[in-house]
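Possible regression after last week's pipeline update?

I re-ran a chain I had predicted before the update to compare outputs. Posting the input and the new output here so someone can diff against the archived version. Not blocking, just want to make sure nothing changed silently.
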Amino acid sequence: MFDPDIAPSGTLLGLLQRGRGDGTLHALAAPRAEALAALHHCVLRDPRRDWQVENRSLYYARLCLDLRADLGEIEQHLFHPDDLLDTAEERTGLALSVLGHLASYGRDDALLLLRRYAATGANWAWALDELALRDDDTALRALGPAVLARFPCTPDGDAELAAAARGAYEPRPWRLWADDPVHGTRVRAAQERTAFDRWQRQLRPSGPRPGWSVHDVLQWAQEEHDARRSDAAARCLTAVAGPEDRPELLAAAASGPDAARAAALRHLAETGDPDVLDLIEAAATGPAPDLVTQAALTAFERMRSITALDRARLWAQRPDALGDAAAAMLACRGGQYDSGLVLAALRRTVRGEGPDARTLWALVEGAGRLAIGCAAPVLRHIYRETASSHLRGVAAHALAATDPSFAAGFAVECLWDCEESTRELAARHAATADSRVVDQLRRLAADPVEEAEVQTAVRSRFAPDA
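New output (post-update):
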């Protein structure tokens, strides 16, 4: 994850970086050279804050088709000398995904670029996964020698080959290469090694074993200062802890070593111990390491009891992380009478931290769940300004429940949004009085690359009994 440079939301570049539907509409109305420059800027400099969650590739691929863009700039980016120095997936992943979608639309030049990059580029595995979904068997078999040549015939090279085969999202090319008369023996050996390594890990576990006590689990958690280890230890405590172990767990949660304290806090929260809320407050507000503080907040957010909700109502007005967690709990599980606290937290967060604050997801969703009509102006601001297309989609769902003007307003541009769930929402709500809506609904229904959920929502609008 990284923090890209996002242009203001009122500019063409800012709209395209955010993946908003208005970005496409403005690009099609702008001079073609200006629109292409903004599009290439987005494709070559991934604007997403979290590229593993947010979608942009289909959005940019469709705009490439609408603008009849050639692929020269993408080609220069992929085969630039920087590709040998910066091998991070983020540098080329978005461009490769755009090429994959263009190949699905029948752009042979995109297919050829993907084949060439899979044979010579640093991020070859991503390109190969794109090809595995779209290319024919003959072309995939022809890539085998170039890909396998990346791994020398040495013990280290064979180990890297096995790891590559194991980590592939799409196994189709590897299955084809396993049947190759020249290279098949080596590929099959790599696949067998992958299975053998997995079997060895199962036979030689390094974690808790039957017979371990609470003390053993807490000591094991402390061996590695890692949140994942403390989470695993908390799950193990569920299996080994009994009523007689409560004093030891309370002591660990109050003043134990960091990882052991985090594991004990989570276990006590999951079992609903009557003293855990006081321990959580002490860990979240006192001078504790980040591992303990985050464990306390996470443990509280996962609680489902009435007692936890009552405590959240007391904490929700606090101007700190514990107050944020309490407000998020009320947004997710509170009742209608908690609307005021949720709305106050939503406004406070936007004023203090802006439209991309981490805690906004739960608060925005809660505003929609509780149908807080007074929240609509804040939700509209978040929708326009956030750089996260995921959060914008959550805001759109909340607006659908709180803003009477949503169907004739934001729902129209959402038909062109980069997120599948946002387009699906728009397909169900957008008012058809706007002629653009009917045309776009028909286009989405006929688009061979559109997601099935979106097309189902579109067809429900055209059904005779709709």
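Follow-up from reviewer: compared with the archived run. The chain is about 70% helix and 0% strand. Marking as no regression found.
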